[in-house]
Every structure is written in C-alpha cells, then in structure tokens.
Amino acid sequence: xxxxxxxxxxxxxxxxxxxxxxxxxxxxxxLFIDAYDEPITPSQxxxxxxxxxxxxxxxxxxxxxxxxKNVFGRRVDPEKVRRLAxxxxxxxxxxxxxxxxxPGARAFLDRAFASRSLHLVSGTSHxxxxxxxxxxxxxxxxxxxMGAPMGKLEAFRAIATAANLQPQQVLAIGDSITEYAxxxxxxxxxxxxxxxxxxxxxxxxxxxxxxxxxxxxxxx
Length: 220
Prior knowledge:
By secondary structure, the chain is an alpha/beta fold. The chain is built from 9 helices and 6 strands, in the order E-H-H-H-H-H-E-H-E-H-E-H-E-E-H.
C-alpha cells in the first residue's frame, strides 16, 4: 500500500493528459493568449493564466466563454467562441509536437497496462486528443480515450459503469483541481502530479508526486 492507496484493489486507472503524460501545460496556457488577435493587457494575461492553472481539466470552449465574460467583460458570443476554439485547435496541432513526454510516463503506462485497464480523460477536445495520442503511438495503452466536451465526472462514471467497477477500484491521476474534485465527488482514489517548483493545489491528504516516475518507483 502507498499511503492510503490500496494498489491491489485498483482495477482501472484514469489518466489526465496534459501535465501528467505530456509536458504541455505551459504550451496550452500560452495558446489561449495567442488565440486572441487583439491587444491583451498584462492583468488580463495574468487572469487567463491563473484560471488555466486552476482549471486545466476544463474544455477550451468553456474556458473561452469564461474569459470573454469574466476577463474581458463582454457578452459571450457563441460564434466568436467557436472561432477562438478553432484557432486554438489549429495552433495546438502545429505546436504540440514540440512537447516532450513527462518523466516516467511511458514506463508507468507499460507497467500498469500489463495488469489494469487504462483510460485517458482530458479537457482537450476529443478529436484533437485522439489524433495527438495516435501520433505519439500511445493509443494502444487506453481502453477509452475521452476528451471535451465530456466532463471529468461523467467520464469517471462511464469508466466504472462500463467495467462494472466500484469507484474505489478506479484510480484517477491528474494535475489540477478539476480532476481531484470529480474524483472526490465520485468516491475515487486520486494521485496528484505537481511539477517541481509549482504550488501544490491539493489538500494535504492527497498523495502527490512530481511525475509518474515517482509513482512508478513506489508502485508494487
């Protein structure tokens, strides 16, 4: 057992993608700025980065809706949000090849894949997520790949239901409060990933590692 985590009881693992498997958190934060073709003040940039850091698992459409209303103080125009999300997707597919896999990610996938069903649950749009995962040769690891607009709680419930598992048998691994809150609401165990030097957003009861290499070293 790893500090309140009963490994033997875990039958499935639901991974977040950005900040857990792929080193893409900073890239995606910058893309929200680059998607706007208008001047953005430093305080607005800070507000966008702050929201992104706390809500990494939220889909881009909902984020742009939030930015339009709460950062820019504008009425949410669905057509403008659609254009922003489309530009974001275009920029993402251009730049995502620059991102490396995080330490230990592939090794832990290889290890866990041998004995448990693995799933990918991300705030990245489903279409983009499927393509990025395929381009990196990661598709083979996952039974289900689920991106936005499906929410984390909905995805976690679907995984447990499809496999006839109890919530306690499905481990969620993520780097944001979004995943933690969904896992807690469903009664799932959770492991947080917090990059070295970054503030830990999770309660002190949550087991935290810098990357999957650390979790892999403790896994038995």
